[in-house]
# Entry
Amino acid sequence: MASLESQKLSPTEETEVQQWITTSERLKASPSDASILDKLNSHLTSRTTLLGTKPSKADVAIYESLAPAVKAWTPEQRTGEHGHPHILRHLDFVQNSGVFGLSVNDAEKVKVDLDEVLYVKPPVDAKAEKERLKKEKAAAAAAAAGTTGEGGVAATIVDRTKAAAEAVKDAAVDVKDKAAAAVGAGAGAEKPKKEKKEKAPKQPKAPAVATPPAPHLIDLRVGHILKAIKHPEADSLFVSTIAMGDKPGTDDTEEYEGQVCRTVCSGLNGLIPLEDMQNRKVVVVANLKPVKMRGIKSCAMVLAASPKLKEGEVDDHKGPVELVTPPADAKAGDRVCFEGWRGEPEGVLNPKKKVWETFQPGFTTTDSLEVVFDGHLVKEAGKEEVGKLTTASGGICTVQTLKGATVR
# Structure
């Protein structure tokens, strides 16, 4: 605590710390006060500490007030739909970080199971939310107009204003007509009207050149998995939060830890350990049409390799499976393309054109464990060549051990 006591805070921060210490006293007296817990959980949604990122004695005060009660919380109270997961995360951070100067025995700590997540809040559809707010505003305006339209004061003012505006408009038209008449009288007879020039017929537009389908239409990017959890409603799925270079405000994205991310469901639970899905780089297909998977909208796909099936063999989904790994220096959002098939991807692939289904059979791995597109396997590719999956700087995407595997 000595380091926190000597920490320099601005007057505004000092005031906020005192307010949180007061809140901690209220929580100590009533640790199940729903209104305070909801406000605290909401405050911590985008903050590491109560002040944002700066630790303070307020964090310690909240921990000491809430920890005894939180130990007895049910899983629903912790991470359920109406639970307080951000409070739980904050307490876990305070009890395990040395910066707060606490010395809490393991037996006394609040137990936190990272795999126990009962509810994942779906990402907000920014476009739909904007439309909803617009409709609400229009409905409120219509209701207000209806209320004041029955002889009320507001309606009277509006009517008077309209009447005045009409009078001004009529007067302006009258002045304009008189001025036109005066000019006509001085100038004599009306000037003959100019003959309209015949417009040249419009040239028909050249038909748009159809772009032949090619692997480059698939938007392959480097993704950075910031966190992954088990899907609460499906034993075979992971739910990952992945940064892949989207701009703020892009549809189907949300901000997490200061980065614009997408939620991605992948059928890798039971095939890849959950710990191997944390804080790692992967390759994603970023322009497939989003789909809901057991109630959670999945907005991309993680590429992984698995052994090719022999003729007549049925996929038992038992693996092995290996994630495609981009070069170590690649950054989230970097485009990766197959050599020989570079070009701009489509915005969102049209499911009816089946671009992904057409070219995915050519995604494979070599004996040197490099991910490639084999044009020999897909006649629509237009050329029988093999191109490595690389970044713009030439770094190659690879797998760990699977040779001659299918990548999807």
Summary: The first strand starts at residue 220 and ends at 230.
